[in-house]
Amino acid sequence: MRVLHRVERGLWQRVLPGVFVTHGGTPTADELARAALAFAGDCAALSGSHALQRFGIRAAPAGALAAPGAHAAA
Known about the structure:
Elements (H helix, E strand, L loop, with lengths): L2 H6 L4 E4 L2 E3 L7 H12 L7 H7 L20
Antiparallel strand pairs: 1-2
């Protein structure tokens, strides 16, 4: 069965151009995050609260600081 046919029948749904979820229900926050990453390409990354949620952290700790490009010394 083709993708278009599954979408037309409501079995799958388009989240972003070229990105689909394989069910007809409401996409979860995790599915939407994965769809955004798939749509954005190989260099995409989640940040802020979305990234924290993927690791099971509900809120950023007080005084949390994001340092783009920073990494620990090897």
